[in-house]
Design brief:
The protein is mainly α. The chain folds into 2 domains: about 130 residues, Serine Threonine Protein Phosphatase 5, Tetratricopeptide repeat; about 110 residues. Helix content is about 75%, strand content about 0%. It contains 11 helices and no strands.
Length: about 270
């Protein structure tokens, strides 16, 4: 499964954009909040994350409606988060980031950077159902976002691959052997069929939106192999799925070859 980093927003690298919501508090509170926010941004950009966290919290205390402070505070926590680690302290850091993103979404339910970041963070934490919820929420706002379709497809494959492999291991099947045990097949169909169909649909949509999306092609190949193993009582359908999977392998390699050749052409001679 490919590594995912939560999106660090364009706001981090672009000139500071102050929150547009109507702020609360006195003019002095607003001025204090913006001073603290600017100082926090400077500390963040210089990797002084403890200092940055303190400034962002002070900005929030002075002006609780300042969305950018919550966004930066979440990004600051993410700098200390290690994707995939089950260490309790690491999980706590992830939960702190989640809390800030959800405050942003309470203030502005259509803040796409917060939605995308929550989806990616939940994916890193292996909270797959939560991740899908936020990817679909993002797609409701940005229906042309190929990466979100791809991410849902990756989650679907992850959720179907493990139970299938566990069942095959119990039956001591070789990789090329079909799954013929009727009881196991029916159990896997009940568990995996919906996710397999969803994964194929979302990966196909990602490729439609981005025809050279080789990562999506690679996972579509894998999803068709998941589908093939569910065709235990239909060898013809199984072979068709495996051929489709092989076709996507070929397409993936062709796209990578074209990209590599373009890279060589665009690289000036030494």
């Amino acid at each position: 499964m490919p590594a995912f980093r939560v999106v660090l927003f364009s706001i981090v690298l672009a000139p500071l954009v102050l929150a547009q919501e109507k702020p609360a508090g006195t003019p002095r509170d607003k001025a204090t909040a913006r001073t603290e926010l600017n100082q926090g941004v400077a500390a963040y950009r210089n990797a002084r994350y403890v200092e940055a966290e303190d400034h962002f919290r002070k900005a929030i205390a002075a002006e609780p409606s300042l969305t950018d402070a919550y966004m930066f505070l979440a990004a600051t926590y993410m700098e200390g988060y290690v994707p995939g680690s089950e260490d309790p302290d690491n999980i706590r850091i992830g939960e702190q980031a989640i809390e800030q993103y959800k405050i942003v979404l309470f203030q502005n339910p259509k803040q796409t950077n917060a939605i995308k970041s929550l989806a990616g963070l939940y994916l890193q934490m292996k909270r797959f159902d939560d991740a899908k919820t936020y990817y679909f929420r993002l797609l409701g706002l940005e229906p042309e976002d190929a990466e979100s379709y791809y991410s849902v497809g990756v989650i679907d494959w992850t959720q179907t691959f493990q139970p299938r492999q566990e069942e095959r291991a119990k039956l001591k099947l070789k990789p090329e052997e079909p799954l013929k045990n009727k009881e196991v097949c029916e159990r896997l169909r009940a568990t995996n069929s919906t996710d397999v169909a969803e994964g194929i649909a979302n990966l196909s949509r990602a490729i439609t939106l981005r025809p050279d999306y080789d990562d999506a092609m690679a996972y579509l190949n894998l999803m068709y192999r998941e589908k093939a193993d569910l065709e235990c009582d239909d060898p013809i359908a199984r072979e068709k799925d495996l051929q489709t999977a092989d076709d996507w392998v070929d397409k993936t390699l062709a796209v990578k070859k074209v990209r590599a050749e373009k890279g060589k052409i665009s690289t000036p001679p030494m």
